[in-house]
Specification:
Layout: H1 10-26, H2 32-43, H3 46-56, E1 62-64, H4 76-85, E2 89-90, H5 98-102, H6 107-113, H7 125-135, E3 146-149, H8 152-163, H9 171-177, H10 198-219, H11 226-232, H12 240-259, H13 263-270, H14 278-288, H15 292-304, H16 309-326, E4 340-345, H17 352-362, E5 366-369, H18 373-382, H19 384-387, H20 409-414, H21 416-427, H22 434-441, H23 456-465, H24 468-480, H25 482-485, E6 492-496, E7 499-506, H26 514-525, E8 530-537
Parallel strand pairs: 4-8, 7-8
Antiparallel strand pairs: 1-3, 2-3, 5-6, 6-7
Helix pairs in contact: 1-8, 3-4, 10-12, 11-12, 12-13, 13-14, 14-15, 14-16, 15-16, 21-24
């Protein structure tokens, strides 16, 4: 395959696409400053536009013109002056912080420009910068044309409006242009935009700033700002997407306050959040504060109506512990046994999963090392048209692997009729379009389908072995908690003579994780052939167990 070569000004075309799309979809919600920014940019020559986009794409806000090198632009001086004329950059300003300007220069460069620093020739750069600050130099004293880019905050806003999130950026355009990412074709228009009021944008940005402050404190391992952030949290929002983001931040801040034993503040915050693990943390703190009865009541609420798989597990453990503590009767739910096997294999230097795969291959099984990719892939194929259905607000940009609500309760709630019909058709054997969907959609990005780990042969074998009713039950479990249940599936799937076997592999010292235990229990309840193989290495291995 011939590599795709990008045009020298590819980034300018991508930036124009960003501006044009946002201007078209959100023109009525843009601030005057943002609209003026777009107007000024469009007045620039192509060369000046390219320089501005290059500067926006770099870290920092101060730059030395002489250190910039963009051959595709040509002479940078005229382009930079055009930006300055329209207020998109500014030249030397006395108010600029000396330390940030000095950071653009090496130590030898500073010594050569400021002879007064010669006594500090042997000093480290931090000490050199202290001495430089005492000289109170102006930007002109550094002897270079230094510029500062203006209006960087508008790019953050436009990226949010275009993508509907903060983790995608202009690099997404490049990955698509290079053919590395291909996406489903779904409608993206003004009617499907995320924000409908300017206030929503402002509140989103404000909450994002608080989140940034939180993570910066975490990166510095500095707990001191966390209590202050708790007091800066806004009141509940009526708009669900924003309220969900607020509750996620509440959970983070409240958990840190709990760790530092600010229990009253942490409890008050967690009570504002419906998202897990809010109820769990409340129950644990209530118990710690001497109120096990209230903790037990909360644990029982969780068990009767869990928000996700993890909360259901936690509720069972908490209820058992608290019942014992309060001398209340507790009847544990009978759970199926998980089949185990112990293999003694000679070490081969490869991953333990591959060693076990070789062992089963020698026993006549056809083995695929898929982890989560098989069942998730089948789910993605079976529900492809429903996943990518044009539900309002689900798709905000052309570069989505799934709808925005894929891992939220809204996904099932907003598509309830279509999902139930599909599950019914799979149960009855009326939906058998695995290979048609596979062929039509191969290579397109889907959060559920890992194409390299789902070859056509595996698709044929698995759909021949798995009955419709079984697949429907497994898919129902995925739909209850898509985020948790897309993981924890066994490492290997084996086929032989029309039979199949799931195998979870555990090397020496390795233990089952909670999500793995949940899936193995589900398989046992549904009589799905599955087991855990515990491997022990032995240089003089005895004859291994027979499958």
């Amino acid at each position: 395959m011939t590599p795709i070569e990008l045009a020298p000004d590819y980034y300018l075309h991508n930036f124009r696409r960003l501006l044009d799309t946002v201007d078209q979809r959100y023109q009525d919600l843009l601030s005057d400053d943002e609209s003026h920014w777009v107007t000024q940019f469009r007045r620039l020559t192509a060369q000046a536009q390219m320089l501005y986009v290059r500067l926006l794409s770099r870290k920092g806000e101060f730059f030395r013109l002489a250190k910039l090198n963009y051959p595709e632009i040509g002479a940078l001086g005229p382009a930079a002056q055009a930006l300055a004329d329209l207020g998109l950059i500014e030249w030397h300003q006395d108010a600029w912080p000396t330390d940030q300007i000095a950071s653009l220069f090496t130590k030898p460069e500073l010594l050569s420009r400021f002879p007064a620093l010669s006594p500090f020739k042997q000093a480290r750069k931090p000490q050199l910068l202290e001495a430089l600050a005492a000289l109170e130099p102006t930007p002109e004293d550094f002897g270079d044309n230094i510029l500062r880019i203006c209006h960087q905050q508008h790019l953050s806003t436009f990226l949010l409006l275009f993508f509907g999130n903060r983790h995608q950026d202009l690099s997404q355009f490049v990955l698509t242009d290079l053919g590395l990412h291909q996406f489903e074709n779904y409608p993206v228009d003004r009617d499907s935009r995320l924000f409908t009021e300017r206030q929503q944008i402002e509140q989103w940005l404000m909450l994002s700033d608080l989140s940034d402050q939180y993570w910066q404190a975490k990166d510095r391992k500095d707990p001191e700002p966390i209590p202050a952030l708790a007091h800066q949290l806004p009141a509940a929002f009526s708009w669900l997407p924003l309220e969900r983001r607020r509750q996620k931040l509440i959970n983070l801040i409240a958990r840190d306050l709990e760790r530092t034993e600010h229990f009253d503040t942490a409890l008050a915050l967690f009570r504002q959040s419906e998202l897990p693990p809010s109820r769990e943390r409340q129950a644990r703190m209530l118990d710690k504060l001497g109120d096990p009865a209230s903790a037990l009541a909360l644990a029982r609420q969780m068990r009767l109506a869990p928000h996700n798989e993890e909360e259901a597990d936690v509720a069972a453990r908490l209820e058992k512990k608290l019942c014992c503590q309060l001398n209340h009767p507790f009847e544990p739910v009978a759970e199926p046994d998980i089949t185990e096997s112990h293999l003694q294999l000679a070490p081969t230097g490869q991953r333990v999963e591959l060693a076990v795969a070789e062992y089963y291959t020698a026993q006549g099984w056809q083995v695929f090392y898929t982890e989560n990719s098989l069942l998730c892939g089948l789910f993605g194929l079976a529900f492809w048209d429903i996943i990518f259905a044009p539900v309002p607000g689900a798709f905000l940009n052309p570069y989505q692997r799934a709808p925005r609500d894929m891992f939220q309760p809204d996904f099932t709630q907003q598509r309830q009729v279509q999902i139930q019909q599909r599950l019914h058709d799979i149960t009855q054997g009326r939906w058998q379009h695995w290979h048609r969907v596979y062929g039509e959609k191969y290579g397109l990005s889907n959060d559920w389908v890992n194409w390299p780990l789902l070859p056509p042969e595996l698709l044929t074998l698995s759909t021949a072995c798995f009955s419709g009713p079984l697949l429907a039950r497994l898919f129902e479990r995925i739909l209850f908690d898509p985020r948790s249940n897309r993981a924890g599936l066994p490492d290997l799937i084996l086929f032989r003579s029309g039979q199949y076997l799931w195998v979870e592999v555990k090397g020496p010292g390795d233990k089952l994780q909670s999500n793995q235990i949940r899936w193995l229990k589900t398989f046992a309840e549904l009589n799905v052939p599955a087991r855990v193989d515990y491997v022990r290495w032995n240089n003089d291995a005895d004859e291994p167990d027979q499958a």
